[in-house]
Design a protein that fits this description.
323 residues, alpha/beta, Rossmann fold, two-stranded antiparallel ribbon, 13 helices
Length: 323
């Protein structure tokens, strides 16, 4: 495993707090949605926070990010403005897209979050165009684009990987594989023995790595390695993150009813309890003696309280229309 130059007490604490912040914000948004206070579609990142935060921690502020329909975590991990994100979700004209886009349209160019594009598979094509621009300008930045495993089955996805490879573009694709396209599993969508590594690494000549997307440290280390390789080898990079989506595909339900649904894999709800990215990072920090367990518990509780308070402060500034 690649040894990260970045891992230290300060970085781990910042990542831990960021993951908790994203979790609490989305849980609060889900609650407001159940109260019919949100008009737009809603796709929650709950359970998948470590991939977004790990990639953001391993890249530079100048690197460009693109997201998809499920991008609250990507936006916040990149330090997008929380207030503008919330305003957008609730349809306020002070939102990051003037209130026209809703939950699936996030944008904060001040931190180089260049947009979340909800049309399936379309973000990667736009990101590759931006990567071409960075190459022509001779910048040292890379362009990062987050896609789901469903989007990775679109024709535009493969066409873009091919063209980006042909022109040696500084593109890093984060494949967040939560195993479902809405409620359709890999078994229902792919031929038997479908092989990502042979397809992307051997067939498409990319730098392909697969990692536990629930584990912040593993995502961070592998992203660092990939970014370095993309720049040195002039190849497209693909980071395949195995993630677990705790919530249903769309909407506000975060409950055992969905986690035990027939479309999910057997005993997946047990894995959800075992593979919470907050718990995994908590254990890593304590086991490696960065913080004592009781001190980290206090930090966690404080962060939850402060994030909840901040959410309510922003929410109270938004005039909510009744549906």
């Amino acid at each position: 495993m690649h040894r990260s130059k970045k891992i230290n007490k300060k970085l781990l604490l910042k990542a831990f707090e960021k993951i908790i912040t994203i979790r609490i914000i989305e849980e609060k948004i889900a609650k407001k949605s159940r109260e019919n206070k949100i008009w737009s579609f809603l796709h929650l990142s709950i359970g998948q926070e470590a991939s977004a935060v790990g990639v953001a921690a391993a890249t530079n502020n100048s690197d460009l990010f693109f997201g998809n329909h499920r991008s609250h975590a990507h936006y916040l991990a990149k330090n997008g403005n929380l207030e503008k994100m919330m305003m957008e979700i609730f349809g306020d004209e002070r939102g990051c897209c003037k209130g026209f886009g809703g939950s699936m349209h996030m944008l904060d160019k001040s931190v180089n979050f260049m947009g979340s594009i909800p049309i399936l598979g379309s973000a990667i094509s736009i990101a590759s165009g931006m990567a071409m621009g960075e190459k022509l300008k001779k910048n040292k930045n890379i362009v990062v684009v987050f896609v789901g495993d469903g989007a990775a089955e679109e024709g535009s996805f493969y066409e873009t990987i091919n063209m980006a490879g042909l022109y040696k573009l500084p593109l890093l694709v984060i494949l967040e594989d939560n195993k479902y396209a809405v409620e359709s599993s890999h078994e229902k969508r792919k031929v038997k023995n479908y092989n990502f590594s042979k397809l992307f690494k051997d067939g498409m000549q990319t730098i392909y790595k697969r990692v536990d997307g629930q584990n912040f440290v593993k995502v961070l280390k592998t992203t660092e390695l990939l970014k370095s390789s993309i720049i040195k080898e002039n190849k497209v990079g693909i980071l395949h993150c195995d993630c677990i989506r705790f919530s249903k595909h769309s909407g506000a339900t975060i409950s055992i009813q969905d986690q035990e649904s027939k479309y999910r894999y057997k005993n997946e709800h047990i894995q959800i309890k075992k593979k919470d990215p907050i718990d995994i990072l908590f254990k890593y920090i304590v086991q490696n003696n960065y913080f004592k367990k009781e001190d980290l518990e206090k930090i966690k509780k404080k962060n939850i309280f402060q994030t909840s308070k901040k959410f309510e402060f922003i929410f109270n500034k938004i005039p909510i229309r009744k549906i």
